[in-house]
Amino acid sequence: MQVRSRVPVDYQWRYNGSVLAGATNATSVIPIFQFNKAGRYTCEVSNFAGAAASAEAVLQVREGVRLQASGFAADGSFRFLLSGELGSKTVIAASSNLIDWLPVFTNPVANRSVEFIHSKALSQRYRFYRPVE
Question: Which stretches does DSSP call E strand in the chain?
Answer without folding.
Answer: 10-15, 18-19, 39-47, 50-53, 57-59, 66-72, 78-83, 89-95, 102-108, 113-118, 128-132
